[in-house]
Design brief:
- Strands 1-2-3-5-4 form a five-stranded antiparallel beta sheet.
- It has 149 residues and is an alpha+beta fold.
- It is built from three helices and five strands; from the N terminus they run H-E-E-E-H-E-E-H.
- 31% of the residues lie in helices and 17% in strands.
- The chain binds adenosine monophosphate.
């Protein structure tokens, strides 16, 4: 990991985040400037790399699997759709040079392609942010629960 990296510090827990999913390998937490409420970021806890190009395939696989887990949880939580976004390099719109997937839930009434405007859907307050975090956590748990036999 990299001492000068914001997302490495979040992965290590030295900078706080609102977590929705965590394993030994990955962390998913709410984006501070959501494009849509529930906007989640998925990062590796195992390694620092900047973009998809310098990310080892096993780390990329773990990130994509975790993004899929979060997306499944969002759908189980009753959202209408999900967008996955992964920006690379400044010219690709990447602001934080530590690879991450954006997992963006779409409300049932917000049809159509995602409009990318960072911070365009802020939470009213911490309580509303926590409601979204809890909804996504519960959805992930429900989506992972074994089917009744
Ligand atoms: P990107 O433009 O793909 O690099 O996305 C970086 C994302 O990180 C943006 O959506 C930011 O809002 C988000 N972000 C920056 N700092 C934090 C933070 N401390 N906690 C949560 N999200 C953050």
């Amino acid at each position: 990991m990299n001492n000068d990296c914001l997302f490495c510090a979040i992965a290590a827990g030295t900078i706080p985040s609102v977590k929705v999913y965590e394993t030994d390998a990955v962390l998913a937490f709410l984006d501070i400037s959501p494009v849509e409420k529930g906007h989640t970021l998925v990062i590796s806890k195992r390694a620092h790399s900047e973009t998809i190009l310098d990310t080892p395939p096993d780390i990329a696989s773990e990130l994509l699997a975790a993004a899929k887990t979060v997306a499944a949880g969002m759908m189980a939580a009753g959202f209408g759709g999900v967008n996955l976004v992964q920006n690379n390099f400044k010219d690709g719109g990447q602001a934080v040079p530590h690879i991450h997937f954006h997992v963006i839930p779409r409300a049932k009434d917000r049809h159509g392609p995602l409009v990318w405007a960072s911070g365009s859907n802020p939470y009213a307050d911490d309580a509303e942010r926590n409601v979204y975090a809890e909804r996504i956590r519960a959805g992930i748990e429900a989506a992972q629960a074994p089917l009744p036999s």
